[in-house]
Amino acid sequence: MTELSQPQPTKPPRSQWLDVWEQFRQHKGAMMGATLFILIVATVYLGPYLWDIDPTKTAIRERNQGPSWAHPFGTDQLGRDLLARMMAGGATSVSVGITAMLLSLFLGSFVGVLAGFFRKLDGPLMRLTDLFLALPLLPLLLVMMLLFREPLNAAFGLERGIFILIVSAIGITSWMPTARIVRGDVLALKEREFVLAARSIGTTNTRLITRHILPNVLSPIMVSATLGIATAIITESALSFLGLGFPPDFPTWGRLLQDGTDYLQQFPERVIWPGLAISLTVLSVNYLGDGLRDALDPRIRGR
Amino acid sequence: ERGKDGNVSIIYWQAPSILNPFLSGGTKDVESSSLIIEPLARYDENGGMVPFLATEIPTVANGGVSEDLTTITWKIAPGIKWSDGSAFTAHDVKFTADYCMHPEGGCAQLTKFEGVTSVEVIDDLTVKVTFDKPTPFPYGPFVGGESPIIQKAQFENCMGAKAPECTEQNFGPIGTGPFVVTEFKPNDVITMKANENYRDPNKPAFATLTFKGGGDATAAGRAVMETGEFDYAWNLQLAPEVIQQMQAGGKGTPIAGFGPLVERIMLNQTNPSPDLPEGERSTAKHPHPFLKDPAVYKAMSMAIDRPLLVEIGYGQAGQVTCNWVPAPAAVNSDTFKCDTQDIEGAKKLLDDAGIVDTDGDGIREKDGVPLKVVYQTSTNAVRQDFQALIKEWWAEIGIESELRNINASVFFGGDPGSPDTFQKFYADVEMYANTFNGTDPQSYLANLLCDKAPKPESQWQGENISRWCSEEYDALHAELTKTADAAERAAIARKLNDMAIEGGAMIPLVHRGRLSAHSNTLGGVVLNVWDSELWNAADWYRKTGS
Amino acid sequence: MLTFTIRRLVLAIPTLLFISLVIFLLLELAPGDPMAQVPLTVPPEVKEKMREALGLGQPMHIRFWKWIVQFFWIEPQVLIDHMFGTTFSAGDLRVISWQTRSPVMDIVVQRIPQTLWVVGTAYVVAIIIALPIGIYSAYRQYSWFDQLGTFVSMVGFSVPPFFSGVLVIVIFSVQLGWFPSIYDTTLVVNSWDSFVQQLKQMVMPVMVLALQITAQLSRFMRASMLDNLNQDYVRTARAKGLSEYVVVMVHVLRNSMIPVVTVIALGIPSIFGGAIITEQVFKVNGIGQLLIGALQANDLPMVQTLTFIFAVLIVLFNLIADVLYGILDPRIRYD
Amino acid sequence: MLDQPIAQIKKLRVEFQTKDGPVVGVEDVSFEVRPGETVCIVGESGSGKSVSSLSLMRLVEFGGGEIAGGQLLFDRRNGGELDLAKANQDLMRDIRGNEIGMIFQEPMTALNPVFTVGRQLTEGLRVHRGLSQSAAEKRALELLREVRIPEPERRLKQYPHELSGGMRQRVVIAMAMACRPRLLIADEPTTALDVTIQAEILALMDRLKRETGTAVMFITHDMAVVAQMADRVVVMFRGNKVEEGTVEEIFENPRHEYTKALLAAVPKLGEMRGKVAPEPMKLMGVADQKIEPILGTDKPLLRVKGLTTRFPVKGGFFRRTIANVHAVEDVSFTLNKGQTLSLVGESGCGKSSAGRSILRLVEPMAGEINLDGVDVVKLDQSGLRKARLDMQMIFQDPFASLNPQMQLLEQVAEPMRNYGVASGSELVDRVASLFDRVQLPRSFMRRYPHEMSGGQRQRIAIARALALNPKLIVADEAVSALDVSVQAQVLNLMMELQADLGLSYLFISHDMAVVERVSHHVGVMYLGRIVELGPRARVFENPQHPYTQALMKAVPIADPRMRKSEKDLNFKPIPSPIHPIGYQPEPSRYDEVEPGHYVLTTDSGY
Ligand SMILES: Nc1ncnc2c1ncn2[C@@H]1O[C@H](COP(=O)(O)OP(=O)(O)OP(=O)(O)O)[C@@H](O)[C@H]1O
Ligand SMILES: Nc1ncnc2c1ncn2[C@@H]1O[C@H](COP(=O)(O)OP(=O)(O)OP(=O)(O)O)[C@@H](O)[C@H]1O
Ligand SMILES: [Mg+2]
Ligand SMILES: [Mg+2]
Ligand code: NI
C-alpha cells in the first residue's frame, strides 16, 4: 500500500512563535495597533530629544496660549509648553500604565489560575481576593505610602522609588477582577478532557497550567490587559490628585487631564490632548491585544 | 414681608455634617447653623461688633465690662423668642456656657470660653461672665458665629458624654435665627423654612431655604454664575480665569472680602533630615543648617514675585502681603516692602553672606551644606502652581527644591503616626494658610511662643509650626495679654508681627480674601469675613425686575 | 451544591470578621486624624479634648470590640425595633459617626435611595446595552459595527468620569441648559412632573457611569463569545436548523457567560458602594460621596461600617457568582 | 419518484484557508442519493468524507471552508429542486435538521456541554415541528428509547459529560432523527457503539428508511457495517471519488487499488480460530512481512482487585447528590506482561471508567490496583506521576482529549518533555518517527487538532501514548475511528511494539473482530461488572454467559450476502446503573468453567 499512501509534501516544521508572528503580521488591526503604539512610545521617549523645551519651565508672559509654531499644543496657566509636558507626561504615564498593568495582570492571573486549578487553594485565595476587594482603597494607599515611601526613596532614589511605589500600589489594588475572571474560566477548563489527557501523560501541574490552561484563558486576560492600562493611567492621576502620586512638578497625562478639566470651557485643547493620548494608547493596546489573541488562537488563525 | 420671596438656595462645596457648632469646628457646620442659632453679638463686615440678641455691646465705658477687666455683663434684648415659641432667657445663655465647658463634651469652641470661671444669671435678661484674670478682650463667649446660644430646654439632657447621642437635637437645634430646620440630611442637604417667631416680623423674605453641600468649588461656582441653579456659593477658591469665565455666564457675581487669612511659607528652624534618628527629626535638638541664616531666608523672600502669584492664583481674592497679620487694618504693619521681585538683590545678598556655589552644580552651599530644600504643601491646584513658580525662582538664586504635595486630610490631620502632617514638618519649608477668628490677634500671635513648638513629647501638637523661638518675642507677647487699650494693643501686635517676619519664622506670600458668589437676583448680601458669611441671611431678598 | 452554599455561608462569617479586623487595623494604621477638617484656629488642646470625646483615647482592641458589639448586636436590634416597634435597643449606644455624631446606619439608609437610583440604573442600562453590543461584535468580528463598538468603548473607558462628567455638564447644563448640573436629593417622586424631573437629573450621571461599565462589559462579552463561536457544538446546533439567533443567544451565550457573570457580580456591590467620582461630580451625595467624605474627615466608624457593608456584599455576590458558575456550567464541581 | 434523486453532489470542491495557503479538503466528488436508499461512503481517513457531508449541510463555511466549485442539488419536500451551494442561510436553516439530519462524528464536542440532553433534543422539534414543551419532551423520550439509551427519563436531565461515549453518540443520533428528515447524513454514527447497540441502531435506521423513505448517506470505515447497510457504496480517496457501485459489486468485484486494499484489511471474526496467540495481520502490498504469534509472558503486570468507581448524580436546584452511577462495580482481573487484555461490552457498561480508574484519572471508590509491584491507589501525586511513565492512555474521544491551542508536534512531544526523555532536535526526530509510525504525514506536525479529520486525530492520540514506551497502555477505543487500512497498520504497529518491547495493553473496544485479533485474554463487561473473563480462544469459542452469547451473535459480517435481519436480534431492555445513595450491590462471584475461564454467577442484570 506504500504507493497509495505516499506522504504529502513535507515542510520543515516551523516554531510556533514564528507562526504566531506570521499571523500577527497579517492582522490589520494588530499592525495598526502596534504601529500606533510604537509611535506613541517613540514620541514620548524620543520626542524630548527633538523638542527640547523644559516641561517645567514657566513663562508667565506666554500663559494660556493657543497652538502656535512656538508651542504647537499651546501653553498652560503658567506658560509651560504643553507639547513638552505631554511628552514628559507620556513617558511617565505609559511606563506606569504598562508596568502596573503587567503587574496586576500577573498577580491576577497567578491568583486566578492557582485558585481555579487547585481546589485546596481556591477557598483561601478567593477569600483573599474578597478581602482585597473590600479594602478601602484610599487608606490602603495611604498606609502603603506611609510604610514604604521613605525606604524606597532611600533605596532607589526619589523618582524611581515613587515609580515603584505607584506601580505596586496600582498593581496591588487592581488585580482582583482579573483573578476572579481567570479563576472562573479555569474552573470550567479544568474539567475539559484534554486536561485529563495531559495529566495522563505525566504533565506536571506547572506545565499543565502554563501550556494547557493559560493559553486557553488568554482572551479574558487580554481584555483585562487593555482595560487595565487605562485604569492604571487614570488611577495614577487620581493618586496625584490625592497627593499620593508623583511630585507635583512631574507631569503625567492623567494629571494634565485633571488640571485641564477646570479650563474645559476656555481652553478645550488642554483636555483634548491628554484625553486623546490616553484613548489612543488604550486603543492601540486593545488592537494589539486583539491581534495577539487572534494570532494565538489557532481556530481563528488563517482567516 | 416674611416669606414673600419663595425659596433661596445656597451651595457649599463642603457639606455640613452637623448643625451643632459646639461639636464640630468645621466652617461649613458653623456657618450653616448660623442661619438657625445666633450669638449675643456678631462682628459686622468691617470687624466691628453689633448686638444681635443683646441690647448693646458691653464696654468699660457703658459699664458692661468691669474696670478690672474680669467681668462682662450682657443685657439681653427683651421679647426674643425661640423658634418653638418659648422665651429666650439668660438661663439659656448660662446653659450654653455650661454645655461647652463640660469636661467630657469635647466642645470645639472651648477657646471661646478660655479663662471663664463662672457665668451667672443675674435676672432673666441679664447674664454675667467672670474671668479668672483681667481680660482686655472679653468678647470670646457668646460673640460671633462660633459661639451661638442653644436652648436649655432642648439640650438639657445632652451634656458631656451624652452629647453625641442627641442626634435629633444636633440635627435640628431650636434657635432664634431667621430659619428653622425642616429636614437635615447630614453631609448632603438641609432644607429650612422661615422662623415664625423671628424677632423681626418682616424677615426673612424667603419662606424656605435649601442648603446643598458637596462637590467642588468649580461646580458650585458654575451652579450660581453659569446655570443659575443656586443663589449663593461659598468660598470659590478657583483660578482667576475660571472665575472670569463663570462670571461671563451672566447669572451671578463674585464678591470678595479680606480677613486675616495669609498664605505663607513656613521655614523650619530645625533640621528635618531623614538621616536623623526618629524622634530627633525636626526637633529643637538639631537646628536647621541654613534656614536660620537671615541672608538665606531674606533672599528666598526677595526672589518671589508676589504680584504674579496673586494674579495667577487668586485674582481679586488676593493681595500682596509681607505680614503675618495683615488684618484688621489697625494691626497691619507697614514695615516691609515686598511687592517687587528682586532676583539680583537676592543673589547679591547670598554672595555677600559668603553663601556661594563652590562645586559648580548651580546650587549654593553654606558651610558645605548645599541649599536644597524639601518644599511641601497640601494638594490643591493653586498651591501646586505656586510650588512650580517658586521652585523656579529659587533655582535662579541657587536654591534647589524638591516638591511634595500631601493629601489635605493627612497634612492637616494631626495624626502623630504620620510623617506627613504639617505639625511634624518633616520638610524644610511648607506652605499653607492660616487665620484667626474674630478681630483680636492675641491668641493667634501666641502661636509663635517658644513653648508651643510641636515635639515628640507633646505628640507633635502645638501651633508653633516653624519651631521659631525668641525670648524677646515671648516677653512682648506677655505684655500684650496685659494691655487693654486698643491702640496700644495694635501697636504691640504690629511689633510682634515684624519680629516674626524679620526673624525668619515664615515668608508671607498672599493675603487671601474670601471669594463667594451670589446670583444677580439675590439682594442684601453683605460678605462678612469676620463672622459667618450667612450672618445677615435674614436681610436677603429676591430682587425684582431682573 | 446546597452543602457548598451553606458551607460557604458559614465560612463567610469568620472571613468577614477577619476582613473587618483587617479593615480596622488598616484604618488605624493609615495616617489621618478626625480633626483634620477642624480649622487651624482651633488649638491643639481643644482638639485633644474633642478626640477624647470621640473615644479615641481608648486602646485599639477595646474600640474594635465596641464596634463589633455595636454593629452585630445593637444595630440588628435597632432594625428589629424599627420594624416591629419593640424596644430592645433602647439606651444602647449605636455605631456613631464622628463627623455627624449620629448613628451611621441612619445616614446609610438615607443615602441608599439616590445611590440605587443613579448607580443602579446606570448598571442596568449598561448591562442592557453592553451584552448585545458584545455579542454582536463577536458574531460579526471585524465588521464596521465591531470596529465602531471597539472604538467607542475604548474611548469611553479611557476617559475618566472626572472629565467626562464635567464635559457633559458643560454641554448639557451650561450650554444647552437641558439638565440640572446639581442633583436634588430632596426631590420626592410623586407625580409625573417630579418623575420627569428625576429622570432629567439622572440622565447625565447615568450616562457617564453607564459608558464606563458598558465599555468594560462589552469587551469581556465579546472576547468570551469569540472563544465559543468556533466550537463544535455550535455546528451541531446549526445542523438542527436553529436560527442564528438561537444558536448565538442560547447555545453560545450560555457557554460564554462565566467571565461576564464574574464581571457583573463583581460590579453589583459597587452599585451599593456608589460611584465615588461620579457622585462627586454630579453632587448625587450617595454612598460613594459619603464614603469619600468620611475618608477625608477620617470618620473611622463611618468608614469602617461602610467598608464592612461593602465587604459583606462582595462576599455575598462572589458566592452568588460561584453558585451561578455551577448552574451555568454543569461541569464545574464544588465539593 | 424513486428515480428522482434526493440529493446530487456534482463536482464538489472544497477548500480550506490555512496558513500554508489553501488546502483542498475535497477535490472532485460526484454522487447521488435516492429516496429510500442507503449510500455508504467509505474511504481513507482524511479523504474528505466529513467535509463532503458538511458541505451538503452548508456547514463547512462555519469551519473555515469554502465551497470552491460544484453543485449540491437537493430535492425539497414540496418538490422543487434547489442548488444548496447557492442557497442562502435562511433557507438552509429551514432545511437543516428538518429535511436533512446529520449525525456528527465526535459526540463529546458535538453536544453543548451546558445544556441537558433533553433540552438539546427537543430544540429541533420545537423549531421545525412547532411542538409544545411537553409534547417535545415526550417525543424526545421516545427517541431515546429508540436509540436504546437506558433510563431515558433520567438521561433527559443529564448533561453530556455525564454520559458514556456511546450514549452521547446515541443522543446525537436521536437528535438527527428527531424530525424524521428525508435525508439522513450519518458520519460514523456507530463508531463508538458496541455491536449489540450498533446492530439495534442500524436496524432502526433501516426501519426508518423502509417506513418513511428516508435516504441515508452513511459514512463509515467499518466494512462490516457497509455490508450490512448499504445499497450503494462510494469509495473516496484523497478528496476524490475513486469508485462507486452497488454493495455486491464493490465487495465482490472491487476495481480500484484502494478498494481492494481496504477490503483486504478488514478483520473478520473467526479468523483467529485455533490460534493460541494473537498475530499481526497480513497487509497488502507489504512484502516479506513476518507473521509470528506474540506469546507474551505469564508474569503479571497489572493486578486489579475489587475495583469500584461511582459517580454522583446531582439533582434539584442546589444540585445535590441524589443517587450514584455505579460505573465500575467490583472488577478484578490480571494482565500479564507483554499481553493484551481486552474489555468488551455494551456502551456505558463502564469500560472507559475502569480504564481511567486504573490510571487514577478518576478516583476509584475502592479496590486495589497493582502495577508491577506498585500500589497505584496509595500513590501520592508525585508517585502517581512517576507511575504514569509506565502507563499511558489513549482516550476514546480524540478531539476532546487534544488541546485545541497546541500544535500536534507539541502535543506528541509533550510526554517526552515532561519526563525529560528527549529534547531539542532529538525530540523532533522522535516525534517525526512517531508520526511515521502512525502513518501521518510529517507536514501535519504544525497543524492544530481542528484542522484534522477524526481518524487523523485518533492517530495523534496513539502517537502521544506511544511516545514514552510505557509498560501498559490503556487503549480506549484506540482504533475505532480509523479506517480499516490504517486500523490494520496501527494494530500491527501495536502488536509489533508488544513483541519488541513487551508492552501490555488493556484494550477497550467494541469491535469483536479486532478484539479477537489482538487479545490474549478477554473480559466481557456488563453493567459495571465483568461477566465473563478468560483466554481469548475460550471466550470466543465457548461463550458461557448469556450476554457474551448475545454479543457474539450480534457481530456483523463483512459480506453483503450475509446480512442479519432484525428478527435475528433479540433486544433486551438495558437495566440502569443508577442506584439511590445507600444502595449496596452484592459482591461478584465467579465460577471457573474451564482453567482460567470465569463466568459470573451472581446476578448481572442481564
Ligand atoms: N478546518 C480545516 N482546516 C484545514 N484542513 C481541514 C479542515 N477540516 C478538514 N481538513 C482537512 O480536510 C481533509 C478531509 O477531512 P475530513 O474531515 O473530510 O476527513 P474524513 O474523510 O471525514 O476522515 P475521518 O474518517 O478520519 O473522519 C483532511 O485532510 C483534513 O486534514
Ligand atoms: N463524569 C460522570 N458523571 C456521571 N456519570 C458518569 C460520568 N462519566 C461516566 N458516567 C456514567 O458511568 C457509566 C459508565 O461510563 P463509561 O464512560 O465508563 O462507559 P463505557 O463503557 O466507556 O461506554 P462507551 O463504550 O459508550 O464509551 C455511564 O452510565 C455513564 O453515564
Ligand atoms: Mg470524518
Ligand atoms: Mg467509553
Ligand atoms: Ni468501528
Secondary-structure blueprint of this entry?
The complex is a heterotetramer of chains A (303), B (546), C (335) and D (606).
Chain A: H1 16-26, H2 28-50, H3 82-117, H4 119-134, H5 137-156, H6 158-172, H7 176-190, H8 193-200, H9 205-213, H10 218-241, H11 253-261, H12 269-296
Chain B: E1 7-12, H1 27-33, E2 41-43, E3 49-51, E4 71-75, H2 90-101, E5 116-123, E6 126-131, H3 152-155, H4 167-171, E7 179-185, E8 189-194, E9 208-213, H5 217-226, E10 232-233, H6 240-247, E11 252-267, H7 294-302, H8 306-313, E12 318-320, H9 343-352, E13 365-366, E14 369-370, E15 372-378, H10 381-396, E16 400-406, H11 408-411, E17 429-434, H12 442-445, H13 471-480, H14 486-502, E18 506-519, E19 522-523, E20 541-542
Parallel strand pairs in B: 1-9, 1-10, 15-16, 15-17
Antiparallel strand pairs in B: 2-3, 4-6, 5-6, 7-8, 8-9, 10-18, 11-17, 11-18, 12-18, 13-14, 19-20
Helix pairs in contact in B: 5-6, 7-9, 13-14
Chain C: H1 2-29, H2 44-53, H3 60-84, H4 104-139, H5 144-158, H6 161-175, H7 192-229, H8 232-239, H9 244-273, H10 276-282, H11 287-296, H12 300-328
Helix pairs in contact in C: 1-12, 4-5, 4-7, 4-9, 5-7, 6-7, 6-10, 7-9, 7-10, 8-9, 9-12, 10-11, 11-12
What is the domain tally of chain D? Answer: 3
CATH architecture label name of the largest domain in chain D: 3-Layer(aba) Sandwich
- Assembly type of the chains comes to heterotetramer
Structural class of chain D: alpha/beta
Describe this structure in words.
- The complex is a heterotetramer of chains A (303), B (546), C (335) and D (606).
- Helix content of chain B is 23%, strand content 21%.
- Chain B contains 14 helices and 20 strands.
- Chain B has helices at residues 27-33, 90-101, 152-155, 167-171, 217-226, 240-247, 294-302, 306-313, 343-352, 381-396, 408-411, 442-445, 471-480, 486-502, and strands at 7-12, 41-43, 49-51, 71-75, 116-123, 126-131, 179-185, 189-194, 208-213, 232-233, 252-267, 318-320, 365-366, 369-370, 372-378, 400-406, 429-434, 506-519, 522-523, 541-542.
- In chain B, helix 7 (294-302) runs antiparallel to helix 9.
- The longest helix of chain B is centred in the last third of the chain and has 17 residues, at 486-502.
- Chain B starts with 6 loop residues before the first strand and ends with a strand.
- With 335 residues, chain C is mainly α.
- Chain C folds into 2 domains: 36-97, no CATH class; 107-332, MetI-like (MetI-like fold, Orthogonal Bundle).
- Helices cover 75% and strands 0% of the residues of chain C.
- The radius of gyration of chain C is 24 Å and the shape is globular.
- In chain C, 56% of the residues are buried.
- In chain D, helix 4 packs across helix 5 (133-146), helix 4 (117-129) runs parallel beside helix 7 and helix 15 crosses helix 16 (454-466).
- Chain D contains 20 helices and 23 strands.
- In chain D, a hairpin with a 5-residue loop joins strand 4 (65-75) and strand 5.
- Chains in contact: A-B, A-C, A-D, B-C, C-D.
- At the B-C interface, helix 4, strand 9, helix 5 and helix 11 of B face helix 2, helix 4, helix 6 and helix 11 of C.
- One adenosine-5'-triphosphate is lined by residues 161-167, 192, 311, 325, 327, 347-353, 396, 577 of chain D.
